[in-house]
């Protein structure tokens, strides 16, 4: 029964995220739904791996991100992370995203919150057998927190969060956004692999006790990482912007050529109309002259 309900839900979400496949039109609401769904799946996977004490959590989380990128990449761009949206806007490569960035971040925040509520519900009300009966496993959920790991400081956690957020955002810009180095067939795998790298490298450093100040510090570190990624992208991929200049020059030249062709076509059409008119006038004049000739002149012409 659960699998049947899952299949029905998948079909409904497919129609929501891809209305153009069913005669509808894609809108900003469609893109927001895509960002919500992708972020929900990602955060839910993170929470379930942490609470389940998975030994391969980084690979599982990376795989969920990769799947969602391939599934929804051509719907909303598959940002699924406010830092990625900020990096793309800061890079200047996708001007169409600028007007939707706040809505994207809102959708990601709501999707992430829904994912957190989902794994919280799954584990809070799971039952753990103890002596004398079954008890709700709420203590396990309370252990899921955000902050430096044991033996590490908040400054160290911020450093690694900033650095690996920068790596994630930089890879997104280079393999999914850039014109010169993008890879449409492998970009999901490359981006997902960043999560594998970061999860295994810094999981013990930046995972620990949570406080409000920790959350604010993590947000600041990740926004800084996104900004650094955008700046680095502009340095290493300066060719991207020269390509844009050449494209603009080419478009301007094509427009000039089109205008020149249009002028020549107009001139040719006018000339043809003028020639036809002159020929018609000449024929008409000759006929009128012939009618006005005297009988003697007509005899001479004969």
List the defining traits of the structure above:
302 residues; mainly alpha; Glycerol uptake facilitator protein; two-stranded antiparallel ribbon; 76% helix; globular
Q: What's the helical proportion of residues?
A: over 70%
Total helix count?
Answer: 12
CATH topology: Glycerol uptake facilitator protein
Overall strand count: 2
CATH architecture: Up-down Bundle
Q: What does the radius of gyration come to?
A: 33 Å
Computed structural class: mainly alpha
How many individual domains? 1
Give the overall silhouette: globular
Q: Let me know the largest β-sheet.
A: 2 strands, antiparallel
User: Strand arrangement, largest sheet?
Assistant: 1-2
First-residue to last-residue Cα separation? 107 Å
CATH superfamily: Glycerol uptake facilitator protein
Strand fraction equals under 5%
Report what the structure shows.
With 302 residues, the chain is mainly α. The chain has a single domain (2-245), classed as Up-down Bundle (Glycerol uptake facilitator protein). Helices cover 76% and strands 3% of the residues. It has 12 helices and 2 strands. It has helices at 2-17, 28-51, 57-76, 82-91, 95-98, 101-124, 138-142, 154-177, 187-202, 212-236, 238-292, 295-301; strands at residues 127-130, 133-136. The protein has a two-stranded antiparallel sheet. β1 and β2 (133-136) form a beta hairpin. The protein is globular, with a radius of gyration of 33 Å. The N and C termini lie far apart (107 Å). The mean pLDDT is 81.
